[in-house]
Every structure is written in C-alpha cells, then in structure tokens.
Design goal:
Distance between the termini: 73 Å
Protein name: Adenylyltransferase and sulfurtransferase MOCS3
Order of helices and strands: HHHEHEHEHEHEEHHHEEHHEHEEE
InterPro entries: Rhodanese-like_dom (IPR001763), Rhodanese-like_dom_sf (IPR036873), ThiF/MoeB/HesA (IPR045886), ThiF_NAD_FAD-bd (IPR000594), Ubiquitin-activating_enz (IPR035985)
Number of strands: 12
Structural class: alpha/beta
Number of helices: 13
Pfam families: ThiF
CATH class of the largest domain: Alpha Beta
Shape: globular
Keywords: ATP-binding, Molybdenum cofactor biosynthesis, Nucleotide-binding, Nucleotidyltransferase, Transferase
Helix content: 25-40%
Bound molecules: zinc ion
Organism: Geodia barretti
Number of domains: 2
Length: 385
C-alpha cells in the first residue's frame, strides 16, 4: 500500500480523521488509479474531486477540444484554454489543484481497437460520456477486464448514476440488452442541460469511485440514483440483478471480444454528428433559394418548426413559430410554387408557400406536380393560419 508523506498527511487531514476513512483509506486511494472517459460536464467535476482527494493516478480521456459553449458546465476548462485538447486542459487544471497526483492524458476517440489497452491500465473506470455506442464499449471492456464502471448521465434538469459490474452486480447489457433506436437518443447539444446538473452527478461519480478506491462499498451497485433538479430531488430505484443470459457477463457469453459498437448501436461514438434522416436535396429549400424568394418580394409564409426557445434565441425576419402540437423532430422543407392551386383551403391565399414539418404534408394533394410524396410525410394537416 502506498505510503503518505508528511505533507500529504497535512493536506488530507480533514478526511484522514474520518473513522470510516482514516490513514488506511487514504493510502488505498493513493495506490489506486481511475480513468475518466469524457472530460466534459460529468468528467470535469469528477476529476476535480478525485484529484483533490488524492487519487494516485488519474487518466483523462477525450478526443475533443474546449469550446466556449462548454464552459457553463465543464468547470475544469477556462476561457484561455478554448481550442486546447480537453484532456490536456483537464490535466493542467487538476495538476494545479494537486501536484502530488499523477495524470495521464489520452487524446483519442475510444474505440474497439484501443479500449482494452487503455482501460487495462486503470483500476476503476468512470463513464462520463454522452453516447450509447461508447456506453456499450465501456461496459463490455470493463466486463472483459473485470473492472468496476461508475456510470453517470445528465440531460436538461435530470441526472442518473449507477455502478456496473461491482461484485456480482449487473452490467449495462444486463439492463439494456439492445441499444435504443438512434433517433430516440438525445444528448446535451440537442436537448440542453443546466450546468450544475452534471456537476452534481459528476461529483457523485467521484464519490463512488473514491469509495471503491478506499475499500468502502459503493452505494449504487444494482441501484440507480435519479436526480430531478426541477422538482423531485433524489430518488433511488433498485435495478434487476445480473442476468445469467447476458451476452457479455452471463454464463455463456456470446461477446468475448470487443465488437463494432457504432454498427451495433446504429449511431456514432461521439456527439458531433447525429444522423438525421433528411429529405432529398430537391425537396429542400436552400438558403440561396430562400434568399431569392425574399429579394424577389414574393409573398410567402415562413414557418419555423424548431422549439420555441430556439425561436426566441434567433429567427429569420417575418418567420412564424409553428404551433407546438404540430412541431416534429422530423423536419422537412417543401417549397411550393403557385400554391393557390395547391392549397385547398379557400382562405389560404399565399402565392408562395414555404413550410416545414412532415405533419403538414396532407395539406398538399399528391400528384399535383408541386411536391413529391415521401414516406416521412404523414397526417394530420396543419390548420390554416
Ligand atoms: Zn451483463
């Protein structure tokens, strides 16, 4: 077990005097290593508390660079490190906090080719990512290597936390054998998040990792902590136990090596490009086409189908925010010319009609020559404005 120096005894004195922790717990923490995958909203507070508490070795893994829009929640980074690799920015921050710890950076996108070699260098793994493909990758890697996985997530005003693979507890696949449909998954860049929410969950991930590193029991093995920052506070639900038929940790596992997780999940292992099923180019309105409509003075109606808050942030002049009940995540744009003949409602007289959202399509009769039927176009029609 790692020995504490005199300076370290003074530094960690307030936690050394805790009977449940003591010198033994502190020395155990110093002898342990934690890999944080994702130096973002969850990973930053987690890294701060692990470093402050004296974890022996900290690994910071992130392929991305610091952006200004990260700073409201990714509290390791700062304005003068915008553009710097998050792993390196995080290292500089935690080394400034505690020079006694060792920090290793991994500026890579974790995938099946590098995961096992990186994960195997650490005792405890923290999942601070925000995509499903990496969750399965980390889960399978941790099961194959026999490492505990402290998993957290945060979105909007809600957070979740659990520990997988701890002393016979379930793994992620025991709970979710199949990935969710890619279109049903939302991340922070799309759904938004209040910065303090990942701060709370990331801090709790550090607490769970520290408990394991110190020799204490984590609280949330086979239990899921739910945090509702809007109205409900904290709630804990019990999870199903390890499943004997689990594909990776079961009695006869079919997964004995890492697989292609982007293929398995149908989604990418980063948050840069959500695959969107958009219409063919000829069915969309380009900025140039719309500019010609405006500069040509053509009467038209421009409907904005984004969320109302997005409309409030910015919108094109003369556009109208569409009614909430007709908003759709599947957005299409149709450009209908000479629409007096197309629009059946007598009180609609727009000569040019620019619209969006799949739900508007039945307004326009198929086969009229003004639009092409498309599988995304469904009922019901939008009421006349
Ligand atoms: Zn399992």
């Amino acid at each position: 077990m790692a020995q504490l120096s005199v300076e370290e005894v003074g530094r960690y004195g307030r936690q050394l005097i805790l009977p449940e922790w003591g010198r033994r717990g502190q020395e155990s923490v110093k002898g342990n290593s934690v890999l944080i995958v994702g130096v973002g909203g969850l990973g930053c507070p987690c890294a701060l508390y692990l470093a402050a508490a004296g974890i022996g070795r900290l690994g910071l893994l992130d392929y991305d660079r610091v952006e200004l829009s990260n700073l409201h929640r990714q509290v390791l980074h700062c304005e003068n490190r915008v553009g710097v690799a998050k792993s390196e920015s995080g290292r500089d921050a935690v080394k400034g906090l505690n020079s006694h710890i060792s920090v290793t950076t991994h500026t890579v996108l974790l995938d099946s080719s590098n995961a096992l070699s990186i994960l195997s260098q650490y005792d405890i793994i923290v999942d601070a990512t925000d995509n499903v493909a990496t969750r399965y990758l980390l889960n399978d890697g941790c099961v194959l290597l026999g490492k505990p996985l402290v998993s957290g997530s945060a979105l909007r005003f809600e957070g979740q936390l659990t520990v997988y693979g701890w002393r016979g507890g379930p793994c992620y696949r025991c709970l979710f054998p199949s990935p969710p449909p890619p279109a049903s998954v939302t991340n922070c860049s799309e759904g938004g998040v209040l910065g303090v929410v990942p701060g709370v969950i990331g801090s709790l991930q550090a607490l769970e990792a520290l408990k394991i590193a110190s020799g204490m029991e984590p609280l949330y093995s086979q239990q899921l902590l739910l945090f509702d920052a809007l109205g409900g506070g904290f709630r804990t639900i019990r999870l199903r136990p390890r499943q004997p038929q689990c594909a990776v940790c079961g009695e006869n596992p079919s997964i004995t090596a890492l697989i292609d997780y982007e293929l398995f999940c149908g989604s990418r292992a980063d948050d840069k490009d959500k695959r969107v099923d958009i219409l063919d180019p000829e069915l969309r309105v380009s900025p140039q086409e719309y500019s010609e409509v405006v500069s040509g003075g053509k009467p038209h109606l421009l409907l904005d189908v984004r969320e109302e808050v997005e409309y409030q942030i910015c919108h094109l002049p003369h556009s109208r925010s569409i009614l909430p009940q007709f908003r759709s995540t599947t957005c299409v744009c149709l450009y209908i010319r000479k629409s007096e003949q197309v629009l059946p409602e007598p009180h609609v007289t727009f000569q040019t009609f620019l619209c969006a959202t799949s739900k508007m399509a039945p307004w326009m009769p198929p086969g009229s020559g003004y639009w092409k039927p498309h599988p995304q176009l469904m009922t019901p029609p939008i009421p006349c404005l």
